[in-house]
Amino acid sequence: GAGVSQSPSNKVTEKGKDVELRCDPISGHTALYWYRQSLGQGLEFLIYFQGNSAPDKSGLPSDRFSAERTGGSVSTLTIQRTQQEDSAVYLCASSLVEDSYGYTFGSGTRLTVV
Amino acid sequence: AQTVTQSQPEMSVQEAETVTLSCTYDTSESDYYLFWYKQPPSRQMILVIRQEAYKQQNATENRFSVNFQKAAKSFSLKISDSQLGDAAMYFCACVSNSGYALNFGKGTSLLVTP
Questions:
Q1: pLDDT recorded at residue A55
Q2: Shortest Cα distance from B106 to chain A (angstroms)?
Q3: Tens digits of per-residue pLDDT, A58-102?
Q4: Does B106 sit within 8 Å of A107, measured CB to CB?
Q5: Hey, is B86 helix, strand or coil?
Q6: Does the CB of A25 have a partner CB in chain B at under 8 Å?
Q7: What does the pLDDT average to over B18-36?
Q8: Contact list, A31 vs chain B (CB under 8 Å)
Q9: DSSP string, A78-104
Q10: What is the spatial distance between Cα B74 and Cα A99, in angstroms, rounded to a whole number?
Q11: In degrees rounded to 5, what are phi and psi of residue A99?
């Protein structure tokens, strides 16, 4: 696609429910990143994919968070048993591996846990 | 690891005037990249300007320029001839040449008044 697409744009969920956030990167971009932006904060790195593998999961805040990427394309970030502190904007970015600093970001998913 | 500090939570500038946003960073790496991103209400992070640390010449992109002081670990953004469309959150970020995860500051909210 022309840009990085994220869905849903907004999600309201009840505490304790599981949610899935989707990221569709730019076609041909092999690197994919997830960040979390809490209110009034900068972006916090969550996970990095190179192709379908995730060499760095160090930013995932707890074992309730997981992510996968299939076909070297779409990625899903799953949060199990959501908590109110999970409320944030989740941003996805992608890049060509040889220009790993030319990130293109999506518009994010705003997650609200009530 | 790098840390990025933006000491100005909010800034205001009149249309057509010039404003400078401050950023300092800390890194033990000798080779790294610095960025300024703009985040309008649409939430998408848009790359404004990028600076390679090994380059002494300050980067410029049209009305946007940086003052990169490597010894002082300072990387300020100057916006000339400010326009209403420049109003947004601005984030400073850093990544080492051996890394991939951008480290962001907490952002500066820029208001542009007519």
A1: 82
A2: 4
A3: 899 999 999 999 988 999 999 999 999 999 999 999 988 756 577
A4: no
A5: helix
A6: no
A7: 94
A8: 100
A9: EE-S--GGG-EEEEEEEE-GGGTT--E
A10: 24
A11: -135, 60
pLDDT score recorded for residue A2: 77
How far away is chain A from the Cα of B98, in angstroms, using its nearest Cα?
11
Q: In terms of pLDDT, which residue wins out, B4 or B55?
A: B4
Instruction: Give A 58-97 residues with CB within 8 A of chain B.
Output: 59, 89, 91, 93
Closest CA to A104 of A92, A112, A87: A92
CB spacing of A42 vs B44 below 8 angstroms: no
Q: Is the Cβ pair A48, B100 closer than 8 Å? A: yes
Selected for mutation to probe chain A from B91, B100, B106, B108 (highest A CB count within 10 Å) is B100
Tokens of A44: 């916090």
For residue A35, the model assigns a pLDDT of 96
- Compute the radius of gyration of chain A from its Cα atoms: 13
Q: What is the per-residue pLDDT across A20-72, written as a single tens digit (0 to 9) for each?
A: 999 999 998 999 999 999 987 789 999 999 899 988 888 999 999 999 999 88
Mean pLDDT for chain A overall: 92
Structure tokens at B60: 């410029």
What is the rounded CA–CA span in Å between residue B114 and residue B110?
Answer: 13
Token pair in block for residue B112: 């542009």
**Which residue of chain B has the CA closest to A37?**
B106
pLDDT of amino acid B1: 73
